[in-house]
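Here comes a specimen:
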Amino acid sequence: MMTRPFSSRSRSRALALLAASAALVLTLSACGLVSSSGTFRPASLPGGERPLEGTSVAVTSKNFTEQVLLGKITATYLAAAGADVDDLTNAPGSMSSRQAVLNGDADIVWEYTGTAWQTYLGETETISDPQELYERVRDAERANGVEWLPPSSFNNTYAFAASSPTAKRLNVTKMSDIAKLPESERTFCINDEFLSRADGFIPMLKAYDIPLDAPGGVPKGNVTTMDSGVVYTSTARSEPCNFGMVYSTDGRIKNLDLVVLEDDKKFFLPYSGCLVVSTGVNEANPEIAELMAPVSAKLTDELMQELNGLIDIDGADPADVAYDWLKDEGFIVPVD
């Protein structure tokens, strides 16, 4: 298999990212770590066009599965369109990819609207409408020298799930159904971070009228904290909990046959995936937005679960998963 090696520009930028990450604090949970070789598979557009000929861009990502995959999809496709692409995916630390784009050490990254709203912009208002949140983030971020392209069709937000047999036994399809269950069935598995978040477990229970350790609510003894990965397997076994906190695009949802409950009171902030491009690169190369729009539109929750699962569960290389998906969808063809 042919791969694209690091260029000298890649090396210098990668060193800058490594140095920057030492000063940054890890603030987001990772759902599957993968190593990035800084490579992607070569391809071309079906008609042989090269609309980005002469354009140089650096694509970066955070260091968890979904982010690396999205970076590889972007790097592969833009290179197929003729761009000279530096692959800086899997940047160490959850903030270094963000900082790299702000500093001009990278040009393109995938981000989430909820992350930007709370973590980058420091906002506390809960905006449940995905389009409104996107527009607020997009407009605010222009002052930071980045352009948020229109959101994809996936939303990697917090959610609660149950095993398929348990969801059927309890007749639950949405979060508000939990309040109708006997107290003994209101059992939860969560991680420590979600328990302590200002927008996490305790206010969520209050929003759904089942407050923690209150009459008619959820007893503290019904809540078990554990590592995020263990939450999935515990939820699949329905032991010690019927309901587990998950990330809505995680590959383990499909693999373990979990049923994600509808957040019918719209408690959770949307985390719509968006391609973010530095303002200068976006203005100089409007073809990037045009090329990526149909790719972004195809990325649904169900598809991301499937693709993430190929990496986290089956052990596939993110570069191969990205290439195969783009090829299967007709976006690229193999090079001769």
